[in-house]
Amino acid sequence: MNILIVKLSAIGDVIHTLPSLAALRRCYPQAHISWVVEEAAADLLADHPMLDRVLVSRRKRWMRDLREGRSRASALREIREFLRALRDRPYDLVIDFHGLFKSAVLVFLSGGKRRLGYDSLQEGSGLVLNERIPEDMNKHAVDRYLDLPRHLGCETGEPEFPIALQEPHFERVAALLASFAVDTSRGFVAVSPVAYWETKLWDEAKFAAVCDRIVRELGLPVVFTGESPAGPIARIRALMQAPSASAAGETTLRELAALYREASVLLTTDSGPMHLAAAVGTPVVALFGPTSPERTGPYGEGHVVIRRGMDCSPCFRKACETLQCMKSITVDEVFEAVNEKTLSRSASR
């Protein structure tokens, strides 16, 4: 049996689909399972023991090269090779976990016999399916995605988040932590202050104040993480009185997962790193504003979500004139949550 999973992005969404992969592998132990994913999240699936093949779509780069006239021949060649690989197996089952136009195109081009997804016309995604189930948006994304293997008769059980962390990832993280000027040997608090939506960001001065209190009152160093050490991370560190460290831009996704596993707690906005830390079992203190923690909060027990129950929230808006839902979160309540999770983490180790 040949199965194709289509879940392209983003990092958090791919993580949310991992329990469905585990359920499918248990249900079809002899199946050949492929997963098509965009390159930003591809490292999460590399060397995965439950997957037989990972097909990486470099759609954004291909479109940019074609649009700007750079390396068009190379882009077209890569697209042809990708499509050839996509169609080189007769898929008995294709599952669209994404439900958007870009995933529908790949589902259609795969040539799969049984094309399963949600009963949705969002961006026309449901038009290419020949088998649909209702999508319950009142569920967390993890449980919503698990409805698809449940529909196939698969036992889902307790959701698990398999990521292929290997010894080189931990060795790389150990070397990185040892290179910092601050001592992380007795634990540290990881901080991820970045987000793609402006409405998900918290005040940089407040982040600096909390981090200073973590260093001063908890005696733990702070290690920042993110795609780039510049921008918000650089500004927050400049506002701090205490020394800090930054692993931003220094890790792959799986190395970041290994780093989070070593952390006492992750303080974060609603972002992909939040889900990565939760997946490896690290307590999360998450700051929520325009989005719904019931749908996309850190999954599992032991996490703290700080959120204002405002009349307009969740609004799922990427722009806002007031940003009041995030501005009303205080330094004291964030610090107390980090303190609580740090103490509980220390007691469990």
List the helices and strands and how they pair.
Layout: E1 2-6, H1 11-27, E2 32-38, E3 53-57, H2 59-68, H3 72-86, E4 93-96, H4 101-110, E5 114-118, E6 131-133, H5 141-151, H6 167-179, E7 189-192, H7 204-218, E8 222-224, H8 232-239, E9 245-246, H9 253-262, E10 265-269, H10 272-279, E11 284-288, H11 293-296, E12 304-307, H12 324-327, H13 331-348
Parallel strand pairs: 1-2, 1-4, 2-3, 4-5, 5-6, 7-8, 7-10, 8-9, 10-11, 11-12
Helix pairs in contact: 1-5, 1-10, 2-3, 6-9, 7-8, 7-13, 9-10
Subunit arrangement of the protein: single chain
Termini separation comes to 43 Å
- Main sheet properties: 6 strands, parallel
Q: What's the pLDDT, averaged over the residues?
A: 95
Number of strands: 12
In the predicted model, the low-confidence regions spanning at least 5 consecutive residues are none
Q: Counting H and I runs of at least 4 residues, what is the number of helices?
A: 13
The best one-word shape is globular
Strand order of the largest sheet: 3-2-1-4-5-6
Tell me what portion of residues adopts beta-strand conformation: 5-15%
